Amino acid sequence: MTMKKRKNKSIYLMLVPIYAFTIIFVLFPILYMILLSFLSKAEVWGVVKEVTLDNYKKITEPLYIKTFLDSIKLAAISTGFVVLLGYPFGYFMAKLSKKWKRRMMELIMVPFWTSGLMRLYGWIIVFRSNGTLDQILMGLHITKSPLKLLYSYEAVVVGMIYALMPFMVLSVYSSAEKMDWTLVEAARDLGATKFKAFITITLKQTMPGLLSGVILTFVPSMGMFFVADLLGGNKIVLVGSVIQEQLTKGRNLPFAAAMSVVLMLLTTMLISLYKRVTGSGEMEGLV
Amino acid sequence: MREVILDLQDIKKSFGKNEILKGLNLKVHEGEFLTFLGASGCGKTTTLRIIAGLEMPDSGQVILNGVDVTKKEPNERDVNTVFQNYALFPHMSVEDNIAYGLKLKKVAKNEIKKRVKEVLSLVQLEGYEKRRTTELSGGQKQRVAIARAVVNNPKILLLDEPLGALDAKLRHQMQLELKKLQKSLGITFLYITHDQEEAINMSDRIVVMKEGQFEQIGTPDEIYNEPKTSYVAAFVGDSNILTGTVKECAEDKVVMEFAGGTVMAQAKGKSYKEGEQVVFSIRRENIKLEDHKDMPIKAVVKEKSFAGGMLRIVFLVSDNIEIVASRQGINYNLVPGEETEISFASEHVVILNQEM
Q1: Residue A160 structural domain
Q2: Is residue A188 part of a domain?
Q3: Is the pLDDT of residue A283 over 70?
Q4: The whole model's pTM is what?
Q5: CATH code for the domain of A268
Q6: ipTM > 0.95 (yes/no)
Q7: E strand or H helix at A100, and its extent?
Q8: Contact B74 A196 (CB under 8 A)
Q9: Which residues of chain A lie closer than 8 angstroms to B75, CB-CB?
Q10: Which of A21, B25, B202, B210 is the most buried (most CB within 10 A)?
């Protein structure tokens, strides 16, 4: 008994730094941000201690509501494509031999060795007028003139898909990897067609991975303003871009904070919805 | 003779360079309890998977109820499988697991409910409908897996070592229950095991498999008392396998000479040439230690030990040949080092087919 207690104590001691880190660098900033969102903007820089709800009122202005809706739309479209492309990818990866699984994993991880921003500049080279893509398409005589893909909605969606796909692949993969494939054989044996067995067994069994992949894609895509900025050329304004602008050019800290709080609430709602649906607090690939 | 429900014709299967099945031929009759008995890796699971359609044979035909189903998908075959690890769907209740096949066949809802209830009482799990399969014990999972398969009323039920994961006591109980279930349902059972007791207890016929081939097909009695090869003799029960030379073969009797002396066996319709080399077997419990009617053989007691409720006595005949006998009880009046005589009754000596 005493041994166990002592053991528990030492585990708690080891956890202290982690808790301290989380409190200082996660909890405090969030509390500070919430506090800021209820204060007023100072004339030049910073805030004055006047408690107000004006910042939240401002969000309900049509311009900002539209920004939120646009962000949700882009996130939804990107997530949709990521599901369609990433699910089969993760699923088939789980069926590969051990050797090929490792190789695929390496290929997925390689892009993470360079900065995400750098990789986005790569897409600019691909998409710009007379860029790589245009040259290939024109060289193959598929198109005659440059497509002017850069600074379009499509370019932003491609950038989003590119940036977020690995999260979906890995979380579906980790779910499918753990799956007991004899369950599918059992379903087939009991009379299910391949399609029916996939829907009733495989999809159900890999649902936690798929859903956590959706969250891992949807939540960050709401805030990935740099993708929209670089590939969309400021034509597409997202919540993330507004927050960044208000913080830098607008020097309106309280309003930026209020927007962040709303964004945070939206994503928290999503995650709790996920927990409700899957009935577990565990996130595949996250925890 | 009952109707042939399954006909395997020259089934061959390789995985890469490994030849797993080397041309299997077998006819299974309706309502039969047939067991594939063999060591692990002998190809018995592959055979079952080919019958279920989960594996395609490289060549040969699977004829089910008169129809060639070799190229048919598993869902198009009227067979169901009880998997070794049960393979119950973890995201479904017991009821939904059992109803899975019926729902696919679009059976009416109240009919499904009725049949699930019936089959649950058949496997003695009344009232378990709403339980999650993850909450069940090993034995209960086993029963659900059986219920899930038999509720579809298949032509053949395939069982892949279904009792392997259960403890000895439960296993014995389930053996009897399974046999009873099979009798009452009248469904053909194809059963896989590596446990000879299980095979002998339950089967109408046993197929002994070795390295992708059928060594012997026969009733438990035939397999036990008249093994055809030394593999069968050694695998089923405990036998002494000895080599000898035919000295005389007349009418029904074969007289053989072996290192320890002379033995007699029944010819069983076969004829043997004088001087022919033969392998024969005799079971441990059939070795006579006294009241010899047949020609006695000189033997020295080498050791005596007690194991598994039986006394095991090892004799040495002609210096280097060991013969093991077994007896019930622990008090047998023989001391290691003692010189004595043993004998083999001719009806217990079985001449085996020479291995190719």
Answers
A1: 62-278
A2: yes
A3: no
A4: 0.79
A5: 1.10.3720.10
A6: no
A7: helix A98-109
A8: no
A9: 188-193
A10: B202
